[in-house]
Amino acid sequence: MVEKMPSVTEREVLAALSKVQDPELMRDLVSLGMIKDVKVDGGRVAVTVELTTPACPLKNKIRADVEAALRAVPGVEEVGIEMAGRVRPAAKEAPAIPGVKHVVLVGAGKGGVGKSTCAVNIALALKRSGASVGLLDADFYGPSIPLMLGLEGRPTPTEDGKGIVPLEKHGIKAISIGLFIDPHQAMIWRGPMLHGALIQMLREVTWGELDYLVVDLPPGTGDVPLSVSQTIQASGAVLVTTPQDVSLADVTKAKLMFDKIKIPVLGLVENMSNFICPHCQTATPIFDTGGGRRAAEQMDIPFLGEIPLDLAVRVGGDEGKPIVTAHPESPQAEAFMTMARNIAGQVSRVAHGEKSEPEPKPAAGHQCSGCGGC
Questions:
Q1: Where do the domains of the chain lie?
Q2: CATH topology assigned to domain 10-85
Q3: I need a labelling partner for 208 at 20 to 30 A (CA). Which of 5, 13, 264, 364 fits?
Q4: Predicted model pTM
């Protein structure tokens, strides 16, 4: 006589999944509302896991944990898991920019560290991950976003004449003061003029529905970074530095600025971390090595990743073909993708009322594989 397997119920499935935690938010998937469309058919169970962002850095770990929990339920013979992602807005008052769920500021303590290159490629990497993204160039004295994206033409007014339609390129929406002025004209503006132009760009551009609006700030801690930071409800700021001491000293000041105006710092990016010879593939730390990671540890903020000093990244920026879209399978593009996933994860933490936190250090002797489990 064949023993009949016990039937599985939806309540048992949800009870099992209530023990699975989101590794970043440290809350269970059921209470977070991430479990959707539970279907039970005999011994087969199918669920949809709706992540808090399409760019979730721990997607594979969450999937593995869900599968293990389901297979441990008596009577489950087959498991089907669909992974989805939906960026959820922060649990706070209405956003200052209608339709925009999260504003991510990209700043630096000094110029010349590749801040705009990082802002462009972060925005495109978030787009590649499945999010809807916009890019605002707030670096009024050096608006390089039009060149880096290969933008052509000028923004047009909306049909009612009350707004500005941003340009679109590589799948993202973009706006820059550089699209409104002669590219050879010097921006000799005082603080009040800069503030007025910034407010106009923030309030009159019709972004539509965006998961993330990436804002490329001017370097330093002057009028424009303060105006941007105080005008919009940013979900957090990403700091860009290079490994040498002079850059690290300046980025510490930028961190203190964001602390004072109560904007969470999502983490630190080390750009130009090393130069990889295109002939012998030897990595040379031209600007020192490991400074960004040490600085992040000292400031107690997440270290978001390293970007190598690479000719392809520079050429892509000059030709309006960013590395993330021009060579998406390259190691350089993957470095930006990893960084964008880390940023999205930190934004999710902030949106759920959690503090952005550094990744835990691997145990002694552990070789990190980049799986996200460390």
A1: 10-85, 100-351
A2: GMP Synthetase; Chain A, domain 3 (3.30.300)
A3: 264
A4: 0.85
